[in-house]
Amino acid sequence: MPDKKPAAFGSVVNPKPPLIVSCRGKDGRNNALVVVYACNCSYDPPMVMVGIVPSRYSYGLIKETGIFVVNLVPESMREAFDYLGTHSGRDEDKLAWLGLRLGEGVKVKAPVLLDCPVSIECSVVDSIRTGSHEMFVGRIEYVHADEGLVGTDGKIDWPGIEYLRLR
Ligand SMILES: Cc1cc2nc3c(=O)[nH]c(=O)nc-3n(C[C@H](O)[C@H](O)[C@H](O)COP(=O)(O)O)c2cc1C
Fold first, then answer.
1. How many Å apart are CA 85 and CA 35, to the nearest integer?
2. Residue 19 CB: number of other CB atoms within 10 A?
3. Which protein residue's CA is at the shortest distance from atom 20 of ligand 1?
4. Pocket residues for ligand 1 (CB within 6 Å)?
């Protein structure tokens, strides 16, 4: 093919969504990690899918509770995003260290990151071990969005979100 050459296979669907997935262990401890392997996977019923590597501390928490929250990440949260993506909740309470503002889920027992413009409460309905990741299929139980982003029809003004840009 003219003007084309073979390229590396890894993580090829781009741009990737900048997400923080928050969760809570059965012992009540909150945690969160950065996830970019994620997508919408059903319109009706509304579902999303997040890919988590089994070695992550969060993996065990989500396995045991079947609950997670997907938080969309704005540029203003770059420092927290970098930290949550490079440190493990196995060693420390990352959310407390970062001093992030937390709310309580309405439908699920997990923390909602209040400084994220949109947070999506999910319960696990299925999971698929694909290879390096396990894809958790989450039924959407509740969506929180900043007041200024929600129209009278309840729809979210997606272009109004200044997403963090992955480097
Ligand atoms: C840009 C970026 C993207 C990442 N994407 C994922 C991902 O999609 N799935 C995953 O399991 N880990 C991903 N990680 C790694 C985890 O966020 C990281 O290992 C984290 O420290 C795990 O935290 P935990 O052990 O507290 O669960 C990503 C990290 C970064 C910096």
1. 8
2. 24
3. 85
4. 31, 33-37, 51-53, 56-58, 85-90, 166
**Residues, the chain:** 167
Q: Is 12 exposed, middle or buried (0-12, 13-18, 19+ CB in 10 A)?
A: exposed
**Which domains, ranges and CATH numbers included, belong to the chain?**
19-148 (2.30.110.10)
**CB-CB contact of 81 with 94 (8 Å):** no
**pLDDT classification of 76: cutoffs 50, 70, 90:** very high
Nearest to 103 by CA among 40, 30, 2: 30
| pTM for this predicted structure | 0.98
Query: pLDDT band at 152, cuts 50/70/90?
Result: very high
The 10s digit of each residue's pLDDT in 32-73 is 999 999 999 999 999 999 999 999 999 999 999 999 999 999
Residue 29 Cα to ligand 1 midpoint, Å, equals: 18
Residue 151 alpha carbon to ligand 1 centre in Å: 33
Tokens of 81: 């995003």
